[in-house]
Amino acid sequence: MNTRTSGPSPGTRLRGAREARGLTIEAAAERLRLNAALVLAMEEDRLALLGAPVFVRGHLRNYAALLGLPEEEILAAFGSGEIPEPSFLPAMDLRPKVRDHARWAWPITAVLLAIAVVAAFWWWGARF
């Protein structure tokens, strides 16, 4: 448990900075190359979900840097001695991302099929 007495928690500061920049949890996770559940865990001060203390410090440092917060302040606020042992990460219901090229596949296929049909009619008409 954190023994700080005043001011918002580090997780609250991270969340506030993310929201002030207009980033969603998923966008922040993508930039950090983390699972969205880990970003949420940092914002909720649930450090046990982040793994070993060395990973916790690394994730916090990277997240603070992404948001333009003073990294050392965020690390000091969490306190290196207060990082609990790792626990299991709860599953998040995240839909798979749709790739940009996949949304163009159907229209391109339809155009190519239409060209093929027109060419077949033209060839058929020219033959007879």
Counting helices, strands and paired strands, the structural category is mainly alpha
Q: Which overall shape is indicated by the principal axes computed on the Cα atoms?
A: rod-shaped
Poorly predicted runs of 5 or more residues:
1-5
**How many strand segments?**
0
Helix amount:
55-70%
Q: Would you tell me the overall average pLDDT? A: 81
Q: Using only CA atoms, what is the Rg?
A: 25 Å
Instruction: Tell me what the CATH architecture of the domain at 10-94 is.
Output: Orthogonal Bundle
Biggest sheet character? none
Going by CATH, what is the homologous superfamily of the domain at 10-94? lambda repressor-like DNA-binding domains
CATH class of the domain at 10-94: Mainly Alpha
> DSSP helix count?
6
- In whole angstroms, how far apart are the ends? 86 Å
In sequence order, what are the helices and strands, one letter per element? Answer: HHHHHH
Strand content: under 5%
Q: Would you tell me which CATH topology of the domain at 10-94 applies?
A: 434 Repressor (Amino-terminal Domain)
